[in-house]
Design goal:
- This is non-specific serine/threonine protein kinase.
- Its EC number is 2.7.11.1.
- It comes from Cavenderia fasciculata.
- It is a single chain.
- The chain is of the alpha+beta class and 385 residues long.
- Helices cover 30% and strands 14% of the residues.
- The protein has 12 helices and 12 strands.
- Strands 1-5-6-4-3-2 form a 6-stranded antiparallel sheet.
- Helix 5 runs antiparallel to helix 7 and helix 7 packs antiparallel against helix 10.
- The longest helix has 20 residues.
- The radius of gyration is 20 Å and the shape is globular.
- The structure holds adenosine-5'-triphosphate.
Length: 385
C-alpha cells in the first residue's frame, strides 16, 4: 500500500475535531489500495446539490471508471461538527450497505478527506436515472399523472428499500422523493444516509477493508431510540430546477415523533412512505399549503396532523380510492398504531404485487431511463439539459 500523504498542521486546522483521515478514509475491496485525492478524478459535470455540497459525475483518471462524487464542504456550515457527524454517518452506512451487497443503496468505492478545500468526499456508484422527485416533477409538468399500477410499483419498491436498510441495522429518518434514485434499469435506490441512525452497534472498516462487518438480523421494532442526532431537513420543495437561493428547509415527510424530537423507532420511515403515497395519489403535498409554507409552519401542521389529514383527504386535487386512503391512514398514524413492512405488504392496496419479484428486482418497471452513454445526465433536472 502506498503511504498516505498527511498534510501539514496548518492545512489541518479547520478539520472538525476527532475525525482524522484514518477515521474517514476508505477504499472498497477490489479498488486501488491507495486512498485517492480529488486530482485522481476528472469532473465531468454537476448532477445535484445538497445543503453543504455538491454531487458530480467524475471519471477516475487511472481506470476511466465513472462514479458519482459527493463533496461535503464542512466550512460552509456554522457547525462543522454537525457536518462531520453527518458525513461519518453517511460513510459508515454506505460501507455496510456496500459490504452486504445491497442493491438498494449506491455502492461506496472510496471516502477521503480533502484538506485543501475542507471537504469530505464520497466516491460512489453513479445512479444514472435521476432522482424520483425530478421524475415526479417532470410527470407533473407533462400533465401525465401516475397511474395506480405505477404508484403500486414505486411504493412497493420503496417498502423494500426501507426494509432492506432496516435489516442492515439503520433507520434512514429522511426518506423523501429527493433521496430516492432511479437506477439504469428503472428500480428505486435509497440514497443520502447523512441523517441515518445505526441501531445495532458495529464498527465499519476503515482503510482498505472490504470485509463484511454489518449487523445481521436487526429486529428494530422494539429498538426505540432517542432523537439525539436530529436529521437535517433541507431539501428542494417539489421544483428540482429551483435555484440555490430557493432552498427551503422542510420536514414535510418526517414522522410526527421525529419532528417533535421524542422517542421513535424504525416506524418513522413508514410515516414518510405514507406522506409520499399521499402525494402520488392526491397530486399535492401533505402538510404543505404552498411553496411559501415555512419550515416552522410545516412542523406545526405535522403536529396537528389528525385534523389536517382529514381535510387533505377530503379536499384532494385527485380523488383518493378507499383502499389508498386506508393505507395512508395506517401509515400517517400514531407510532403505536402505525403498521410496518409485514402488514404493509399484506395491505389490500398492494393486492397483486409479487413481493418476491420486487425484492429480486425482476418486476418490470413502468419506466426505464435508457441513458445514451455512461455519463448521460439527462434524467437529472438540476444542472442537466
Ligand atoms: N450516487 C448517485 N448517483 C447519481 N446522483 C446522485 C447520487 N447521489 C446523489 N445524487 C444526486 O445528488 C442530489 C443530492 O444528493 P444528496 O441528497 O445525497 O445530498 P445532500 O447534501 O445530503 O442533500 P440534502 O441537503 O437533501 O440532505 C440527489 O438528489 C441526486 O440528484
Amino acid at each position: 500500500m502506498e503511504p498516505i500523504n498527511i498534510p501539514s498542521f496548518a492545512n489541518r486546522i479547520n478539520v472538525p475535531s476527532e475525525l482524522s483521515e484514518e477515521d474517514f478514509n476508505y477504499h472498497h475491496q477490489g479498488c486501488h489500495d491507495k486512498i485517492p485525492n480529488i486530482t485522481d478524478f476528472e469532473i465531468i459535470s454537476t448532477i445535484g446539490s445538497g445543503s453543504f455540497g455538491e454531487v458530480f459525475i467524475v471519471k477516475e483518471k487511472s481506470t476511466q471508471s465513472i462514479y458519482a462524487l459527493k463533496k461535503i464542504l464542512y466550512n460552509l456550515s456554522s457547525d462543522p461538527e454537525l457536518i462531520k457527524k453527518r458525513a461519518k454517518r453517511e460513510r459508515d452506512a454506505m460501507i455496510i450497505c456496500s459490504n452486504k451487497n445491497s442493491k438498494r443503496a449506491p455502492k461506496l468505492y472510496y471516502a477521503f478527506l480533502d484538506q485543501d478545500d475542507t471537504s469530505f468526499n464520497l466516491v460512489m456508484e453513479y445512479i444514472s436515472g435521476g432522482d424520483f422527485n425530478s421524475y415526479c416533477y417532470k410527470r407533473m409538468c407533462d400533465n401525465n399523472p401516475f397511474q395506480l399500477e405505477e404508484i403500486k410499483f414505486y411504493m412497493a419498491e420503496l417498502v423494500v428499500c426501507i426494509e432492506n436498510f432496516h435489516n442492515l441495522g439503520f433507520l434512514h429518518r429522511d426518506v423523501k422523493p429527493e433521496n430516492l434514485m432511479i437506477d439504469k434499469d428503472g428500480h428505486l435506490v435509497l440514497c443520502d444516509f447523512g441523517s441515518s441512525k445505526q441501531i445495532v452497534s458495529s464498527s465499519p472498516p476503515s482503510i482498505g477493508s472490504g470485509s463484511s462487518s454489518g449487523p445481521n438480523g436487526f429486529s428494530g421494532l422494539a429498538a426505540t431510540i432517542n432523537n439525539n442526532t436530529p436529521p437535517n431537513f433541507t431539501s428542494f420543495l417539489r421544483n428540482p430546477n429551483c435555484s440555490y437561493t430557493s432552498y427551503i428547509g422542510t420536514p414535510q415527510y418526517m414522522a410526527v415523533e421525529v419532528v417533535q424530537g421524542i422517542v421513535y423507532s424504525k416506524l418513522c420511515d413508514y410515516w414518510s412512505l405514507g406522506a409520499i403515497l399521499y402525494e402520488l395519489v392526491a397530486g399535492q403535498a401533505l402538510f404543505v399549503e404552498s411553496p411559501d409554507t415555512t419550515e416552522q409552519k410545516i412542523r406545526e401542521n405535522i403536529g396537528n396532523w389528525r385534523g389536517l389529514l382529514n381535510t387533505a383527504i377530503s379536499k384532494s386535487q385527485q380523488p383518493i380510492s378507499k383502499v389508498a386512503e386506508s393505507l395512508i391512514r395506517d401509515l400517517i398514524a400514531p407510532e403505536r398504531k402505525r403498521i410496518d413492512s409485514g402488514a404493509i405488504k399484506k395491505h389490500p392496496f398492494f393486492e397483486g404485487v409479487d413481493w418476491q419479484k420486487i425484492s429480486d428486482r425482476i418486476e418490470t418497471p413502468p419506466y426505464t431511463p435508457a441513458p445514451s452513454n455512461p455519463t448521460d445526465k439527462s434524467s437529472f433536472s438540476i444542472g442537466g439539459q
